[in-house]
Design brief:
Layout (H helix, E strand, L loop, with lengths): L3 E4 L8 E3 L3 H22 L3 H7 L3 E5 L1 H4 L3 E6 L11 E6 L4 E2 L9 H13 L6 H9 L7 E2 L7 E4 L2 E4 L2 H5 L1 H15 L2 E5 L8 E5 L5 H9 L14
Antiparallel strand pairs: 1-2, 1-5, 3-4, 3-10, 4-5, 6-7, 8-9, 10-11
Helix pairs in contact: 1-8
């Protein structure tokens, strides 16, 4: 299970994509590009300072997002001619496998090694040395992906409990479907923070939206719009 590397780093003048699966390029890449553009609009002239001051963010994505489960970290970086862009290092689980939920196994030592590698790329000017260091990284722990519960039927974009299974145990079978869907589309993002950035964790079933991503750069979650007052 090679560690994939995507984004920009000082040793190269343009984008790199090493061992990056197609599903990442189809889903993660356009999401990241969109979030960077949206955060620039929100943060204005402060964007670059805030971007470089942001911490590393760890992530765990279920296989429903990019075709395979992903586990990795995202770091603010810059290319060889000074253009800011993140560097992402991650592992993609083999087909039919996934990564344990970070709630069950946060894989702290693996993430520490991965983040140490990412930080080292800021000081290494030789791309071949960077690839050699990447090859020395261990793979994270992965497990077999749980099968679809027997009472659950997969439809297009939906899980269904049909017929007698629903009649006999409606709550139990729907709960099984919901739990399976939650695992397939899990989306965890967390950071240990930094000197001026508090530790934080995010969880959901989608990628972070534009307001949340701005918070991931600033640590200021008050930028999110408040829900409308129902009494208004």
């Amino acid at each position: 299970m090679p560690i994939a590397l995507y984004g920009k780093l000082p040793a190269k003048r343009d984008f790199i994509a090493e061992a990056v699966p197609r599903g990442f390029l189809d889903t993660f890449e356009p999401w990241l590009q969109g979030m960077l553009a949206a955060s620039r609009l929100r943060l204005g002239t402060e964007w670059q300072r805030l971007f470089y001051g942001a911490p590393l963010w760890r992530f765990h994505l279920g296989p429903g997002h990019c075709g395979r489960a992903l586990l990795g970290a995202l770091m603010p970086s810059v290319d060889g001619v000074g253009r800011p862009f993140p560097l992402v290092a991650f592992a993609a689980a083999p087909e039919g496998c996934t990564f344990p939920s970070p709630l069950a196994d946060p894989q702290g030592p693996w993430f520490e090694a991965l983040e140490g590698f990412l930080l080292s790329t800021l000081d290494i000017g030789d791309f071949a040395r960077i690839l050699s260091s990447r090859a020395a990284l261990d793979a994270p722990t992965h497990v077999d992906q749980p099968p679809l519960p027997e009472a659950v039927t997969a439809l297009s974009g939906t899980l269904a409990v049909l017929g007698q299974a629903f009649v006999e145990a409606p709550q139990e079978t729907v709960a099984q479907a919901d739990a399976h869907l939650g695992a397939v589309f899990s989306s965890f993002w967390w950071t240990v923070g930094g000197a001026a950035f508090p530790a934080a964790a995010l969880c959901g079933r989608t990628f972070p939206d534009a307001d949340t991503f701005s918070g991931m750069l600033t640590g200021d979650w008050s930028l999110r719009p408040r829900p409308p007052d129902r009494a208004a």
